[in-house]
Amino acid sequence: xxxxxxxxxxxxxxxxxxxxxxxxxxxxxxxxxxxxxxxxxxxxxxxxxxxxxxxxxxxxxxxxxxxxxxxxxxxxxxxxxxxxxxxxxxxxxxxxxxxxxxxxxxxxxxxxxxxxxxxxxxxxxxxxxxxxxxxxxxxxxxxxxxxxxxxxxxxxxxxxxxxxxxxxxxxxxxxxxxxxxxxxxxxxxxxxxxxxxxxxxxxxxxxxxxxxxxxxxxxxxxxxxxxxxxxxxxxxxxxxxxxxxxxxxxxxxxxxxxxxxxxxxxxxxxxxxxxxxxxxxxxxxxxxxxxxxxxxxxxxxxxxxxxxxxxxxxxxxxxxxxxxxxxxxxxxxxxxxxxxxxxxxxxxxxxxxxxxxxxxxxxxxxxxxxxxxxxxxxxxxxxxxxxxxxxxxxxxxxxxx
Length: 401
Prior knowledge:
globular
């Protein structure tokens, strides 16, 4: 029943292709943290070093959000999606074959830039292919990404004891290449109408040639509604970047769990997240954005604070599931921000917001790496709980749409 309206006329293959690419685009970004203990050993670097590597992946991903939105109009979704996975194929080979840590960082940067091209084109391609069922198509694709985020790190954690981390990361080139072929073969070339005129630069009066004044964009992103929502979302994402980058490393080095077990706990975070993503949106439609965001954000404050006190597998498993609840925040917060932006500048303003927010939030992994290198891993979780509490307080002040 859920897939009704998503098939026919080759559209089922289009959905499969785009969702398959998203499995590895998103899942691949969480596979790297799962093998960080081996990366540290291979390059003789500390937690700060690997934290910087994860920050580079997410910062370069964030940098591409606004440009990718413009490139959709310039080259079309099909070329951009295929180009994204093609560049991702090259980048994971560079990461896996890196002879030195600097080369590893270069590979991380290219991987972030390459995967950053995928998201904007994914959304517009699905909206155009499924104009009457875009919500279902996008939901199915996001669910596929959650599966990849759970399965790929879990598989890496289970195999890294017998298979080199280099092969695990570099081996992603095979599914990336396959996804690229499938995308090129099944995603149609959509007509973008008037987009041919969108390539002009800014005019002397400060307006873009497509008629969107820069002043209007600035005014849109500095309203009280948008400012509070973006500030809170950035803090929540900052925390998740710090946790996701070092969760496996923390559980192995401090919790003394086997790496395969730690990877399974990391996968549970995304299981909890998938449930929260589905439920949060429906609850927000019923009860409103603010109460849902406050409750979801507040629920993970004690979870983060108590993680350093847990020593049993069952307790950590429960905490991991509950930690994933915070992934319900972006689904509601993003919908809120888009809804309150003026329609005339929604696309441009949203691209600017995503880039800025991701760049700031990406520093979370580096900050936690600094704590870890100072022997303050436990304290890092307490600080992250405090940052989440601040985000929760901001959400209590969120105006209605």
